Amino acid sequence: MTSKTTETPPPAQPPTVPGPRPLTLHMAVQTSTLLSSLAALTGSNGALPILRPGLQDRRNDLQKALDGVPPEAFYQAVTREARTRLERFTEGVRMYRRAPRTARPAAPPAVWSEGSSRLLDYGAAPEAARPADGQEPPVVLVVPSLINRYWVLDLDAEQSLLRNMAARGLRPLVVDWGDPEGDERTFTLTDYIDGRLARALDFAVGLNGGPVALAGYCMGGTLSLALAQRRPEDVRALALLAAPWDFHMGDMGLIRLLGAMMPRVEASVAQGGVLGVDMMQSMFATLDPYLTPRKFQRYATMDPAGPDARRFVQLEDWLNDGVVLAGPVALECFRDWQLGNAPARGEWRIAGEPVRPADVSCRTLVVVGERDHLVPPASSRALAALLTRSETLSVETGHIGLVTGGRARREMFPRLADWLLAP
Q1: What is the rounded end-to-end Cα distance, in angstroms, of the chain?
Q2: Which CB contacts under 8 angstroms, 24+ apart, belong to 396-401?
Q3: CA distances, 112 to each of 117, 153, 163, 203, 238 (Å)
Q4: Does 220 have pLDDT greater than 90?
Q5: Among 155, 307, 352, 386, which residue is least crowded by beta carbons within 10 Å?
Q6: Which of 225, 352, 204, 328 is nearest to 275 (CA)?
Q7: Residue 359 CB: number of other CB atoms within 10 A?
Q8: What residues make up the domain containing 37?
Q9: Which of 417, 402, 409 is nearest to 367 (CA)?
Q10: What distance lies between CA 222 and its chain's CA centroid?
Q11: What distance lies between CA 404 and its chain's CA centroid?
Q12: Collapsed DSSP state (helix, strand, coil) of residue 136
């Protein structure tokens, strides 16, 4: 049985939005890239410069296409295109900042809390199904990443993994990590997994009257894996959505770039005790410096009142609504996971014990986004290969689209719910 969702009324004025964060970095990258193109052409005397050996063939093709074109005409064309892209990017940012915001559905009640963290009970959402036999729906403990807010799993009434689960007969309890405060700023991954998350699991098991399913998204999947290994008697099934494991399955050039940034990360943690949102956003932006400009250039061409523009604003608001990361956790994730590849090497430990996927005894579903550039498919498949009772579900989406895209809603959501409902 369902009823209309109660929504929080929208604010009278659009909120002040700091994104895209950090804006100064994105503006500087965009401007310097476009201006450097002109500088390269100016110094080339009409011949196209070779920026990287891998671009040699493309450079030759373009050079042939430009045969007979006066160098000055080509230079002017590049100048116009550079100006157009920069203007389109800045217009996209302005549009985003002044865009109206769609009110999200009211959050369900919190049924447990500890420190800054709480469990939100989506079994109490208006969309939740009530079994005809009077039995309570099976509990699923949903674990998002520590870096971003949980609400990417509950964008609105149309696109919500959590409400979809509830409507299909599950009782999702999602971890809202909150902002680390006080002693939480010194937490390690052991503190989160063997402490905070383990006690959330205790509550979920008590509420369910027995073992529950775990479902983790992104980093939350990797945390859930470690918890499932440690608590086999309390976890009956484990769903891993775009969960990273082998961090060296992607572009090693990006890993080397991250290695060059680590001294700044370590200095930031040493100074403030945490890794700030803008620092993390700078790191992700450096891995693909053209992603944000491309997104905002596309957004500038959208109908501001259309559904694509509305979804763009929702997702950008979520990306910019980041959470600081406890210093020790930041070093474990970026230094030990990303650079050292500790999980895949068997060197990641929780409470002194190695995390071994082969020791996870429950049935497991590994969900892979085939166009995921943040967690490459090979990274998740490497994890699936180590699990003894695993199935793999492949979806043609990117990382965020795995939980926010129309294809995921149509194809992945129902299959995930059916898998979680199975005994």
Answers
A1: 23
A2: 396/369, 396/370, 396/371, 397/369, 397/370, 397/371, 397/372, 398/369, 398/371, 398/372, 398/373, 398/374, 399/218, 399/242, 399/369, 399/372, 399/373, 399/374, 399/375, 400/152, 400/315, 401/369, 401/371
A3: 8, 19, 19, 7, 21
A4: yes
A5: 352
A6: 328
A7: 15
A8: 23-98
A9: 402
A10: 13
A11: 11
A12: coil
What is the distance between the alpha carbons of residues 267 and 386, in angstroms, rounded to a whole number? 36
- Residues 10, 90 contacting (CB under 8 angstroms): no
Q: How far apart are CA 368 and CA 375, in angstroms?
A: 9
Q: What is the pLDDT of residue 52?
A: 62
Whether residue 119 is found in the same domain as residue 197: yes
User: Does residue 191 lie in a domain region?
Assistant: yes
One domain, residues 242 and 347: yes
Number of domains, the chain: 2
| Among 121, 217, 127, residue whose Cα is nearest residue 174 | 121
CATH number, domain containing residue 174: 3.40.50.1820
Strand partners, 235: 212
DSSP 3-state assignment of 212?
strand
Helix crossing, 71-98 with 23-42: angle to 10°? 170
Tens of pLDDT along 374-417? 999 999 999 999 999 999 999 999 999 999 999 999 999 999 99
* Six token digits for residue 231: 């608590």
Residue 9 covered by a domain = no
Task: Name the token pair of 80.
Answer: 């116009």
Note the Cα 320 to chain centre separation in Å: 12
Per-residue pLDDT reduced to its tens digit, 77-126: 888 888 888 899 999 999 999 999 988 889 999 999 999 999 999 999 99
Bond into 289 cis (ω within 30):
no
Q: What CA–CA distance (Å, rounded) separates 374 from 287?
A: 10
Q: Where are the alpha helices (DSSP H) in 43-117?
A: 56-65, 71-98
Burial of 216 (0-12, 13-18, 19+ CB in 10 A): buried
